[in-house]
Task: structure prediction
Amino acid sequence: MSADDTKKMLEEIARLKDELDHIRSYDELTGLYNRKAFIEKVRERFFEYPEKDYIIVCLDIEKFKFINDRFGFVEGDRLLSYVADKLKERKGSYDVVITRLTSDVYAFLDENKNIEPEAFGAEVQSWVKNYPLDVDIKIAVGIYHVESRTIPVRLMCDRARFAIDTVKKNYMINVAEYNKDVRDYMISQNELLNDIESAFLNHEYKVYLQPKFDIRTNKVVGAESLVRWVHPRKGLIPPRDFIPLFEQNMIIPRLDEYIWEETCRLIREWIDKGYKAVPVSVNVSRLDIFSLPVAEKFVAFTEKHGIDRHFIEIEITESAFANDENKILSLVDELRSLGFKVLMDDFGTGYSSLNLLKDINVDVLKIDTRFLEPGRNENNKGKEILESIIRMAKWIGLQTVAEGVETDAQKLFLLNLGCYYAQGFYFSKPISPEQFEEFIKNPDNVSETLFGEDNEFTIAIEELFTSDFMTERLLNNILGGFAIYEFDGKDDLKLIKANTAYSEVTGNYIINADNEEGNVVKRIHPDDRERVLEAFRNARTAEVEGVSLLARNVYDEKVVWISARIFYLAERGKRSIYYASLTDATEQARIAAELEALKNSLKTTD
Result:
């Protein structure tokens, strides 16, 4: 073998050795150190710089398994690489040692002086704030201050991860530092984790009920089913101490399914005891929706315990609609078609979207009274927002129930807005089934009309005749032309209220029912008047579907084609109240005229 051949062989051996060393030391996807290499490098750093004050920082992408499941592994890997690249940028500024510790958990060693926890937590969250995935991404951060270098590096990382567990599912905080309180918390969590299975076997998970009241009468109209863990040694454990543990270990669907059936069993007991049973709402999480045949489960439980489906109401938190909206919308439609009432929980506190309300067919909005707390500079914007939500719900035919009511002032505020159903500590804290029975065993404590049975249009019609600032602002935030009419059933059609877009569509100034110009019939083209009046009469018997109409509006000799959909609202004395959405149909009419002309020319040709 020649000297050149020997040299090439030695070079190839060296290359292969370097490649093997790289494979042994680095994560293939991200190019970061793997766990083993990270531990070795950290030990080396401790030995080289014994005088420095170090910390171990761990980062955890929350709900990463859901992201993989929802968007696929390719998108998941892209997110993992993106976070790794952000950490590599930090390495360029600070001499840090970085690893991908597990699939979606990273760790790095840094000097204590380089990390201000709260600022770093905000920086990390800014990395993913506008990441191009249709999902809310949160990265939780845990910090362990290295006090003794005799502790195994693996245990240091574990302690940083323990700190992470204290802020998971907390959307207000994403960073925590390991300390004695965290240690005690983790010991307690591990004890609970070990007891989960026996708790199912021993029926330690108990349904607690928070009554819902008609605030006009202070009588019970229903309840919300909640869970408490009655531990044989620890006593009553509140949800905040075990629900995050269940979520992290994917046990929530099993627990929810258990509570759903227990709720059905309780209602059956009330009926058998001769009490007036009331509807009870149960919570359905996003995890339930993606892991259980939810509708099938509710049908099975109600049939097994022989209760009518109207006794079970299903609460889906607003934030659940943020991901895979179509799947959840389909579930809502299916549940309602089966006879279950569906409530959107926490409306206005998370992912609120008026477009969502347009598409989703829920029956009830649950509104959190935290809106009533003063905002910055003690402003009252929260009250205005709450008022707008309640009035908007009325306009689109949704019932509202307020939760978290704690004061008499809050109760009166809701009552004045026409929100008649509420729950909260002002009325009752969550109580045991036995305590709840004390309410319903006395018929005088239960409303004659239960929550959901009162289907009449609940808006105070007189509100339509006021010039209240909030009502005006609400109307003007409705997209497109919107008008409210009063009709005598014959030939007197008056405009009561309209938004500014109405004027743009019709070409009219907004006229008032109190002046002589109030009758809008004269604004309708003479050839279309009877057809328009007949559409209003027909809308009286087509309350849900409404009536569609294409007609001409005339003002100052200007003719405008308008497309309208008319809905009946309520009676006011001997007259009926309607609302209509209006859009400019000039182009639509032009096309229709051209088609008609084309048909006529074809007939002539024939």
Summary: The radius of gyration is 32 Å. The chain has a mean pLDDT of 82.
